[in-house]
Amino acid sequence: MLGLNKKDSTLLIVVAVLTLFAPFILNPFPADSALAQFNAGYPDLMQRFVVFGIFAIGFNILFGLTGYLSFGHAAFLGIGSYAAVWVFKLFTYNVVPAVILAVIIASIFALAMGYVSLRRSGIYFSILTLAFAQMMFALAYSVLSNPKFNLTNGETGLQVYADDPQMFHRAGLPDLPHLFGLSMRATYDLDIGAWSFSFNAGYYLCAVVMMVVFYLSIRIFRSPFGMMLRAIKSNQTRLNYTGLSPRPYALAAFVISGAYAGLAGGLMAAMDPLAGAERMQWTASGEVVLMTILGGTGTLIGPVLGAGFIKYFENIFSKINDAVLHQWFAFLPDGMEDFVVFIIHPFVGKGWHLTLGILFMLVVIFLPGGLVEGGQRLGKWIKSRGKSEETDKAKIEPAE
Amino acid sequence: MDSILLQILNGLDKGSAYALIALGLTLIFGTLGVVNFAHGAIFMLGAFCAVTLSKVLQLSFVTIDETKKDFLGNPLKVETPYVEAWFGPEIGASIIDWAVPLSILLAIPVMIALGLLMERGLIKHFYKREHADQILVTFGLAIVLQEIVKYYFGANPIQTPPPDALLGVANLGAWFGLDLPYPIWRIVYFCFAALIIFAVFAFLQFTTFGMVVRAGMADRETVGLLGINIDRRFTIMFAIAACVAGLAGVMYAPINPPNYHMGMDFLVLSFVVVVVGGMGSLPGAVLAGFLLGILESFASTTWATTTIPGINQIIIYLVAIIVLLTRPRGLMGRKGVMEE
Amino acid sequence: MGILEVKDVSKRFGGLKALSDVNLSVAENTVHAIIGPNGAGKSTLLNCFVGKLIPDTGSVMFDGQSVLGRKPYEINQMGISRVFQTPEIFGDLTVMENMMIPVFAKRDGHFQMNAIGDMMKEKDIVEAAEAMLVDMNMADKRHMHAASMSRGDKRRLEIGMCLAQEPRLLLLDEPTAGMARADTNNTIDLLKEIKDQRDITIAIIEHDMHVVFSLAERITVLAQGTPLVEDTPQNIKGHPKVREAYLGETA
Predict the structure, then answer these.
(1) Global pTM?
(2) How many domains does the structure of chain A reveal?
(3) Quick one: C175 and C245 in the same domain?
(4) Is C64 a member of any domain?
(5) What does the alpha-carbon distance between residue A318 and residue B201 come to, in Å, rounded to a whole number?
(6) pLDDT tens-place string over residues B171-181
């Protein structure tokens, strides 16, 4: 199908089905039950799943295939967002030109940054990209936001104001990002019994885009170009002595992943027409690294899994407060209950970053192959116990 | 003339901090071959050693002074720090006053213990793994450390004043007829940094231990073949590097009120310093630290910021990029270090 | 006029003179061995051929063109392939993919942005790679991870990858170093086969005299950075200077 082999086609279909039916799948609990807090099927969160999925898929093309660890990819995400918001401000709320421009601008920046950074490899490269990203952050946060020349609107963030020109904006079109008139916030709520499902236009736009870029990433993985990228990761010396300079391949991979990040940033702005410097900070770059390694570096499905996993738990953890904890552990004797809540407290609510850091370390130490490898190990273990039943995890076939 | 000298002086304190952190980074990288993203967090923990000690010293018990009344007419509550009760009011007060320098005594064992724990507990297992994994795991550790500090100390900067005696401003140029007002504590900081840098170099240059470490930096395998237990020495080296960064943090607390993310801020810049100085070159790290600190100070002048708004925030990165494009090995980098 | 002409090449590392006034000519379609005791400068010399080092003085000409100042990949494109002391292969890739990369490099030359096509559908590439695997007797290992093979198989794969580029000059840097006797003999047989069946010049650096005397047609003896003597294997065996340099070193 679409030039893919059977295994890849299955994977693509599985991802397509999961994303299209996500509003159902992510809302398994009735709307007013106690477990409803574990539902993830509301538009805002689902949009984040796919947008960060796109970001991580792109990052994986660079890090997973070539092994070049960039610590600056959040910069492209931010640049994409700024570009999109400027299109909203100056021309139109239609998301198509905004997203296209976001990709183009981010690619141009990626080309410049990659050209310089790729002159060095290994840790030098990581530090260089980090320095670039911090510079971009400083530029966006303060330098390019002064009365003389205000490109980013600094701390407040760039947004659309009523007196912006919006040259091609007509009456009758929504006063929000839209796709040829269909507002990104348009949501259809479906109630079935106690369950409630929402279908959001913005989510479906992002989902379709994600499937397209996921398909492209499969093609890249299977292409001669993808093989060269894996060769770079495996042995640059041999590649050099095979008459091929690694640099143009690595640069192409860098620009592609930068374009993916720009696309994600553009879509982010299309969902919520706002761009702030904080999404360019290096902790944001670290987050996409974590998504990729948590899911499984160099695998096809890993980054998507990782992005979903982290964004889901970020959401859940941030909602948990002491009251919720006490409710959970109410079955314990009083003293025990307080003690358990006291132990867990630093990790939830505002402590999500602490959990994230610990998760980061645990994954790198114990599960360098990420969830995909974990799933494979589990699958093997189950098989070796003589049970041939198919598990969900077994669907996640090794990408390579 | 005065203003140029003043900018140079102003750059010295930040430069000292960069130099000390970069020195530790280079030592760790040169000896263990590990890129430590948690090194900035150690600097931050150092600063919080000072915060902790000054808080602990100010721990007080409350007594009720029946002879005085507060404005509501109730008996006045008097808080007396325990140290004042133990050592008498005068000595006690000066102990509290000198909390920051005293923190050095606390920080040295704490930092050495922390360094040993980090190396033995975590870094050791990553020698044979890829640089990417080393970066990632220390990055995770840095996040954990800073979040723990945030949990206990909050997100806001905490004022930690230097001793009263070192609080004021000295006019350094008085002897030469120049006008150079400069905070005394910054002079102290610079001298302290210079002392530590000198001590580290002397240690490496004149002790057998240092000689082995230097040989190990040049060629680890050969030294290992000589039957010298290089790993244990490297562990100690890690502890020393942690100590240097920690002390740099302790003394920096009065200059900039410590907050939980100061380590990250300094780490990124210190990495840039290491790269500019030349990976694996100790003198390069120190030189680049001071140079970039001074450069940043010049970029912060009103003249510079009105000409190019915000230049002070990006100047270091710009310089780093230019240096790397023209001299890929940095100012004093050796050939063959991290080449392929 | 040989295919590889080395004129007055010198190279210093700090105070150490690694090579001084090396002159060497490798004739086309011969097997030329460069031998010498440890530290004689053999590897330094080889690195000057492939662009890893640039000599301080002198010239290195390949087929009438200077190789100096060119990058390793450019020199490779001129027709020089190199086999390393420890096999340099793409360990994370399968044997088949390892073989496809040099075939791609041969067909496409420089950078190609072929990001959408399926590499397994490039018929000519797959066929050429498979043919070379058959030649190397490795067709049954095509789906293996290259890193999981034995040392001897890795060497065999590396040589195959070099041959897949159809180089005019094949450089071998101690191809049997660290190998068991059986693997060494297999490698010798493989190299003999290559020599007999292909139009190729082979320059080999070797420590193992057994390997050298079973393969070489010309031998250059290097000692302390200078060529001591160059002759046929028979004459070299009995040469007093060689015995002195070698026996003096190893006794």
Answers:
(1) 0.89
(2) 1
(3) yes
(4) yes
(5) 48
(6) 776 666 677 77
